[in-house]
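Async update (no meeting this week)

Hi team, since we skipped the sync, here's where things stand on the single-chain job. The sequence we agreed to prioritize is pasted below, unchanged from the tracker. I ran it this morning and attached the output directly underneath so nobody has to dig for it. Comments welcome in thread, and please keep replies under the output.
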Amino acid sequence: MHGLGRATIPVDGTWQFREGDNMAWAAPGFDDSGWEPIQVGRPWEGQGHRNLTGFAWYRRHIVFNLDGNADWEAALAFYSVQDAAEVYWNGRLIGKVGKVWPHALWRRPGPAQTFSLGPVKQLGAGGVLAVRVWAAPYYAYAPDETGGLNGTPLIGDAAALNALCSLWLYEGIERNLYSYALALLSALVSLLALLAWLRDRRQWTLVWLAIFTARVPALTWAGLPWHSFRLSYGTVGIIFMAGDAALWLLLLDLFRLRDRPLLVRWTRILAVLIVGLQVLEAFEQFFDWTRAPRFFLLADIGVTLPCFIILSWSIVLFGFGLRKKLPPPFWALAITGIAADIALNMSSIVGLGGRWTHLNGLAARLSAPLFQIAGNSFDWGTICSTLLLVAIVYAVWRYQRKQQQREVQVAEEFRNAQEVQQVLVPKDLPELPGFKLTSAYRPAQEVGGDFFQLIPLPGGAALLVIGDVSGKGLHAAMTVSLIVGALRTAAIATSDPGEILGVLNHLLHGRMRHGFATCLAMRLDADGKCFAANAGHLPPYCDDREVELPAALPLGLVADAHYESVEIQIAPEDRLTLYTDGLPEARNASGELLGFERVAALLARCADANQIADAACSFGQDDDITVLTLEIAAVPAIHSR
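Output:
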């Protein structure tokens, strides 16, 4: 090495090379004259050692011709070593690049590393540099040529080499500033989407957006040079496929494709399948591939290849989306999505098995930069990914804004329905001379399907009606409105409970979308008589005993159903309790029902409807709960039929 001083000199030229492994080859006195000459800075595969994995040695005899001041420390710098190496100077181990087999750990690409040779004045006239290199078995994305000292080692001043390695690191960061900025922006979008979902757990679109936008920062993290190859290779596939799966589920929402059950089902199946296959591939990294390299290579390809076939599902979803009448932001999403999907997946597909299909040239052309800005290269994949991120964020913002507007409209409709229901279901019952009445109404949702009415009749009588519409929510509440209106109209024409139920049944038949309503109607006369008719409703209780009533079908099922009125015998000390099925079906946290036995005991000790309803709600409410109690306040004449 002529001119060696406070600078760096490449250790290029011809080295001695031999396949195999023998620790005696590190000794400075070993005769390597019979070894094969080879050039460093190039993979050994391109120099006649095709398909070589495992160990091989490089040796170089170095003679120093020091000029000037020799009061400094000499060092060696290595970069682009595939895959791990041990560096020996005059038979002494001075450093390692990763770890060689059997405890293999390697990075690709790994950061440059420097190893001290010691004070230059102690180096003497020179020495022997021996490098024991280990190359890992091939994997699905192995390049066409690999193995060995792909970068030319440097020798020189330790401080200068460390500064040079720092410069390389800085230049690498500078060349990837845009990629890092895009990763940070994507991470921010992902975090905001996740926080927005935590505020409203129903918005699963935000979850899919968070997962998809997290793909870019996650891939950037996995590709950092200080991660082991196994960690990077094992996680990249999962990250990549999870992002695509999230994109599919996101497109189902953005393109309003949830109305196609078969398409939704297959999207979910394929999403689970590609992520599961990549988890299986990651699991392969726990094994020592050197023991069965061909088996693991085929397993790697066998797991990866189906994933890229399945990735074409994105095109299917975009195709369905294009058939919709989409607003411009969603058209932009569809176009950029197809372009990005083709760019990313084509690059990955041609790289898969490129070592054997020789498609690496095509992969290189696909990833070739189109232009540069401040040292940052922009290829088709980068451009399409950026446009897709912008399009998705804007489309999701539009989608969420529409959803919020729709939720505001629905909330307003529910408020209107509540106001209507408060009119139809009275909070306080009117006074009925000779009787003491209490009522309680506890809807399970904003509006409910239970109803009750107390309608005064001529002569001091009154009609008391309680019922329950099948289903819940706004539809049930609108059906209640229909029933109450029809009930008040029917009560003008007749006061017989059975006839009133017949009128309601005729009106509701064919109008309830395969639903029904149960109903119990009672007429309370001024002289204390009580007549009742039942349409599939739970019979009332007299104190803690159930009152027997003729069985009949619920309203709305059969057009010509008949409902019979019967007289109920009650005495001045008796209390009648009418209720809906939400009372016995109240369910606690462990799933246990309140049940009829507990209901009977509750009715025996509680005389007020509010006490009964509150006790049931505290047990656990699943459905609307309505309770009415009726007691004779005076002592009217009681007659029976």
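Quick observations from my side:
Confidence is low (pLDDT under 50) at residues 1-5, 635-641.
Residues 8-172 form a domain with the Jelly Rolls fold (CATH 2.60.120.260).
Reply here if anything looks off.
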